[in-house]
Amino acid sequence: MSKIITTDFRARCPPLTAARGVQLECIDPKNLEVKSCAEAQKSGVEARFTCAPYYSPSGDLPMHYEKCGNDGNWSPGVQTLFSCKPDCGLAEVTKTPYILNGVSTQRGVWPWHVGIYIQTEGT
Length: 123
Hints:
The protein is an all-beta fold and about 120 residues long. It has a domain at about 20-90. It has no helices and 9 strands. The chain has strands at about 20-30, 35, 45-50, 55, 65-70, 75, 85, 100, 105. A 5-stranded antiparallel β-sheet has the order 2-1-3-5-6, with no helix packed on it. A two-stranded antiparallel ribbon has the order 4-7. The N and C termini lie far apart (about 85 Å). The mean pLDDT is about 80.
């Protein structure tokens, strides 16, 4: 059994994890490859933070970028400040998927309607 020995000993930035409602992807600027940020990254790789569907930014910025530096640190180093909040009026609970006309519905799409009526005398 052979092992692959790395010859690249440059510092790497630590893995990143996304907070609730945040989507995170790492982009290698050399070949524009988009990959997971769940593993250590080489210098030059950019991490892009955006809000997941049904979430909106908590602050003024619609997205945030971090760059892996030669020293093995993410810069500017404020990824913990980027957060997303649930959009008002959209359900946050896990729902059982329904089928409408033979097609599964997506989150936020309701296959039924509700009407509430009050019957009064004489109408």
